Amino acid sequence: MNLKIALLGGDGIGPEVLAQAVKCLKAVEETFNHRFTYTEAPVGAVAISNDGKALPKETLQLCKDSDAILFGAIGALEYDNDPEAKVRPEQGLLKLRKELGLFASIRPVKVFPILSKNSVLPKKIVKGTDFVIYRELTGGIYYGKKSLNDDATLASDLCEYSEKEIARIAHLSFKAAKKRRGRLTLVDKANVLETSRLWRKVVTEISDSYPEVHFESIFIDNVVVQMMTNPSQFDVILTENMFGDILTSLGSVIIGSIGLLPSASVGSENAMFSPFHGSYPQAKGKNIANPVASIFSTVLMLQHFGLYEEANAVATAIQKSFKKGITTTDILGSEKYGTDYVGDYIADHIVDSDDDSNINDENIGLGKSTII
Q: Is the separation of the CB atoms in 126 and 260 below 8 Å?
């Protein structure tokens, strides 16, 4: 397969972890006889420093012309410490999602047994946790009209959703649940918010088309408690933009490191794959950032294009690094291995399934149903 891939390293550790993901994709190319073409482009703080725009038009066009986008991370301390900044790195990511119509964020949360001790929760609670969050990504309060009065004493943010926006991601999540364990949980606040009541109405109606999927609706405050006390009960979680942002952060607490969570952002024509973590500017250039989430994002990308054997090979190589203890310090506590070494090890152990009898979906844990 030939694929054109846009590389948006972004800020902080973004370029460093993205470089490890590219190493692994090049190993996939060599092992499975594919050809991937990579083109780099600026976004975020780097782009602002170049021409004052968080998302240059050239970068946006490259993304539109590519088969997939691999994204690093975005954000810089100088903007975090400047509340008056008119242009912020995060605006580039929000605009990219909107312009490309990336309406669905898909984030698997899987607890690997060998890493379960890293969770802040007891092992008996996190054991068996394997769910995926479908978060609506281009609507809601993050994109609604915002206002601030002249003396900065009154502010408002509009949360708005249409039936169409809800329905398109609901169908994706139900299809995913059919291929997983057949359970879908809608997270909302329908006892207070009108938008949540619309979400519940639309998704409940759609659930009738998927009788094989057990459907339930739970309030956001209850789900937060349930995720911290019994996360293994969940299979597919569907929710709106802001609630999804919160719940995916909880996912990193459950698995024990934000450096393990990958994500996919998909639309009808475009798809972007990235680690869930931020830019971690304090670690920039120190060779200590965990590249696994970025490498796992290539697993999601390969699945997206139907390259399941290739995706399994990458995921198996990652698990080998866990078993051998070749990880960055945030996972197993060892300072022996840096970002580059971990990336090299994983890339060097990507092999054809004929060469490794241990490859199977159950062992991998990211499953063919992650991306529809």
A: no
